Structure formats: structure tokens, C-alpha cells
Write the C-alpha cells for this entry.
Amino acid sequence: MQTSTADHLRQHIMQGMGLMAFAMLILPGMDAIAKYLSTYGGMSPGQVTFYRFFFQLVCTLPLLLTVMGRDAFRAKRPWLNILRGVLHGAASLLFFIAVKYMPLADVFAIYFVEPFILTALSAIFLGERVGWRRWLAIVVGFGGALIVIQPSFAVFGFTSLLPVACAFLYAIYMFLNRAVGEGDSPLTMQTISGFGGMMFMAAALAVGNLGGVEDFAVSLPDSPLTLTLLLILGSLSGYAHLLVVRAFRLAPLSLLAPFQYFEIISATILGYALFGDFPNAWKWVGIAIIVASGLFIIWREQRAARTRETAAAG
């Protein structure tokens, strides 16, 4: 009986790891579509971001209503969920503006300072103990980001800092996930935050368009190809994140966290195949430093968690 239970647990863990790896490999497809639409499709990044949330709801709402019915809209903390959506919308907007002008792999590499920001915020605002080794890893990781940013800054200017701003907003979004997650189901959180992101982008589009900002120009899908790509964009956004939620229910966070770096693999492949972009040697050095620092922080957090569990058991 114990062997059967252990085998069942291992099977769940392997399924969770497989789902997480698959989700991380396909998610950059969403950003590749956003880059294509904003560079070749004549659609502004702001409009693409709005459609990302709109078509996410169109593609996932039937499933959410089938599974949960009206309960999908009954959140215990609706305003926090809406705030999550606003943060997610703002982060997605900055990311899509960045990928319009910069190579996909560069944007992803710089964005991966998010775990460093989240660790620092946890220490500062939640009082979590972060030892000198993790602080050193954070500093080294930001140093790796600077190696990627420096040549990009020379070409793209302050646009190269947008992924850092995106990472900061997403780190705050992850903070709210902890607070909201205790009271609401993941499907409810996704539904209401999706509405929040869409409404935020509607307001941002209106303001930006009235101000004559090119990256907020309003437009409708002008061809069957554009509409198809937007539907794929929404489907990837909604269902890939549901795969991540499912993965976290099957396997521990500590095992799944390293798989986030799979996004750099598919982002590099898509960037080269679709846009002819490929990081140079120095950028690969920076990417390697960022990934190594992030993996070290994950490893130290796993070790610290095991130490706390051992002390609690004793």
C-alpha cells in the first residue's frame, strides 16, 4: 500500500514537471505573435495587449463557466483580484512594447531579474530571512542583466529597461498571488484578474490614443490571419497559465521553479526562426549568469525550507 502511494505521488510529480516544462516552452509563442503583429501586422503593442486579455477571456471563459458556473465570478477578495489584473496588464504592456523593438531572447533574459526582485521584496516587506549568499546571487544576477542591457541600451535606449519595469510589476503581482490565493480558487482568480487586465488596457488605450502615442494606436483585426493569430494568442495566454496552475497542484514549487528558464530556449529559437535575432557571445554570458544566479537562489530557498521543516518536526 505504501509503495502504491509512493508510486502515485511520483507519477503526479512527473506529470506536474511535464506540464510545467510544456507550458514554459509554448508561452514565448504568445510573445512571438505579439512581436509579429506589432512589427509586421501594423498593430500597436497596446492594442495587442488589450486583445491578449480579451481573447484570453473569449477562449477560456466557456471552460471556467463549465467547471465552476457562476462561482467563477464570486471572489472573496474581488478588488485584490482586479488589482492583480491591472498589474498583469501593465506588465504585459511593457513586455509587448519591449518585444516590438528588441530581440525576444534579450527581453526574456532581462525580465528574469524578477526572481531577484521578488526575493528582495520578500526580505524587505515580509521579513523573510535571506542570507548573504542569496543577496550576493541577487547582485551577481543583476550584473548579468547589465551585460545584456548594456549593448541593448546603446541601440534601443530606455526601451531596454522596460523588461526590468515589467519584472518589478510582475514581482508585486506574485506577492498578491500569495494573499489572494488563500481565499479564492485559481479559476476565479484568473477570471476576475483577466477582466481587470482587459479593463486596464481599455483605459490605457483610450488615454494613449488620445495623446497620439504610436504604441497605443487603436485598430481592429484587418485580416483573417490577424484574427487567427489573436485567437492563438488568447488561447496560449489562458490555457498555458491554467497548465501552470495544474502543475503547481501536482508537484512542489521548489521542483517546478527551475523550469521557468525553459522560456529562454523557445524564445531564442522563435526569435531566430521568425525574426533572425540571435544573442551574441557577450549576451549569452549575461544570460548564463542570470540563469545560474536564479537557480542558485531557488536551491538556497529549497535548502532553507527543508531546514525549517526539520526544525519544526524536531
User: Anything to note?
Assistant: Residues 144 and 206 are 37 Å apart (CA to CA). The mean pLDDT is 84. The two ends are 27 Å apart (CA to CA). Residues 2-39 form the longest helix (38 residues).
